[in-house]
Amino acid sequence: MQLPYVQDEQKTRKTGLSTTRFGNLACPPSVAVHPSEIASRLPGFRYSFPLLVLLLLTLWTPADLEAGTRRYRCTWRDDPATTMVIGFEHFSGAAVRVVYDTQDHGRSWRDYRWSATPARTVNHAGMRNVFVRLKGLRPATTYNFLVVDSEGVSKQMKFETPHATPDLPLSIIAGGDSRNNRPTAQAANRLVSKLRPHFVMFGGDMTNGDTDMEWQQWLDDWQLTMSYDGRLTPIVPARGNHERANASIYNLFDVPNPDVYYGLNFAGGLLRTYTLNTLFPPGGDQLSWLSRDLSRTKAMWKIAQYHHAMRPHTLSKPERDELITLWATQFTRYGMDLVIESDAHTVKQTYPIRPSREPGSSQGFIRDDRRGTVYIGEGCWGAPLRANDDDKKWTRASGRFNQFKWIWVGLRQIQVRTVRIDRSMGTASEVDPMARFRTPPGIYYWDADNTGDVLRIPRRPDDVLAFSSTSNPPGGPAGNTVIQASKAPAILRRDAAGRVRVGFQLSETGRPVILVVDNNMRLLFKQELSIRGPGPYSEVIQLPTMPPGQRLELIVKGAGQVLGKYRLE
Ligand SMILES: [Fe+2]
């Protein structure tokens, strides 16, 4: 593994702004000498003046004064076990950088073994947001860090890299919609600090109006997720409709994709998280990425988050049929285990379900304990609560209260606990870092219908896993009406009304076309179907009366290729 100081030494050579061992500096930082005076005294003075000013500001940092930084946040762009992005607002001073070490040096910044300079700086929400991207970290390790600039040193903080071991569990908090009720959001943030999860998945709608002031307040409140020892909780954010543009998330959290859809791998193959963007076209590039990624991942568990619930459990929110067509079909196909939705400001958890219109289904889903996906939500981190007045046949339980989910991911099962924020406000003690899967006193869980305190999602049977881990599963879900072209009969027979059911498999987004030709390849019928994403489909086509005595052929085309050919009778 690459050691952190190796990379930072390279940065030092490149930028000249950072050193790896501050203890080796020759100039006592507390000596207040004007930079130009120091520069003129340096032997072999041949550097440009601005560069020297920055260099000398670096040397000058007083350890007993505060750096011009605040509103800290930890995020990821890459492997969470070995990287971390430290983001913050830099409101004054110069030569800002992060010093970090596994050993505790308090605020003696010169003693920290490693340092890194900003990789990205962007003005957004009335703040100068700086992101320092750390690489080459050790998994399952707590790092102490300081943010240092020409004006001083921040308080000491910590971050923790998750482990890279699939046989050790992960602790995750998931929720969304903090919006405009700050006392509740602050209470939820304090609970994060008590539960010390490996990270928080946040499903969007952080603020109400996406204004500068609201974001600054939100980041102030986010500091409450910091544990008593200064441990900052990493956040994996999604975009909601109250973020006016993808830039609100990209510029404040430095996520890996400006379009705010991305995946992250955790715990050496135990889990892959998918953050999707319902404020961006769900088909097209996003769907292609999702399908391709799902088909390739070898992660044991897959969890997705996005903002808009497909089937909200409140009547006042619209249905999202396109998300079922484009995404839920992929979730079933590739075995998405758990989906976290937000936006509706109510509470729900479902049985495992998959898209279906067969008898027994309801609103486009049917319960399927073997192949289904569990959906939970729907965002109550401080937003105004809505009535849970739209349960479905496959709803396991619903409610109306402020909450977030505490999710434990282990080898054999996922456990989901719904933490009642209001009732848990009295929680005083943090979980023991060495026993983080133990409920601290004061935490109250939702005692849900058909569930109890803990919703358990067991590992799928081996035969189901075999299907979901292949890029071209040998058929649709058991009991589904989907027919795959390669498994369909070579002969399609019309019913008495002239209808025929056609099955086909689309490998990428496209508009399928149904053609009927005679034995002279003369076109007798053509029907374009609606545009759709990759996946298996089954369509009933109403055919016109065909000339008798002809040998007919039905052809399915899509995405520039022939998807199937059948003899039509
Ligand atoms: Fe929303």
Describe this entry's structure for a reader.
The protein is α+β, with helices and mostly antiparallel strands and 569 residues long. The chain folds into three domains: 4-160, Sandwich (Immunoglobulin-like), CATH 2.60.40; 170-468, Purple Acid Phosphatase, chain A, domain 2 (4-Layer Sandwich); 485-568, Immunoglobulin-like, CATH 2.60.40. The protein has nine helices and 31 strands. It has helices at 4-15, 35-41, 49-60, 182-195, 212-222, 246-253, 284-296, 321-334, 462-468; strands at 69-75, 84-90, 97-101, 114-116, 120-124, 127-134, 142-149, 152-153, 157-160, 170-175, 199-202, 235-237, 262-266, 271-275, 301-308, 338-342, 347-350, 353-355, 365-367, 374-377, 395-399, 403-409, 413-420, 454-458, 491-492, 499-506, 513-517, 523-528, 535-542, 552-558, 561-568. The strands form seven sheets. A seven-stranded mixed sheet has the order 13-14-15-16-20-17-21, with no helix packed on it. Strand 10 (170-175), helix 4 and strand 11 form a beta-alpha-beta unit. Helix 2 (35-41) crosses helix 3 and helix 7 runs parallel beside helix 8 (321-334). It is elongated and about 95 Å long. The model is unreliable at 1-47 and 469-489 (pLDDT under 50). The chain binds fe (ii) ion.
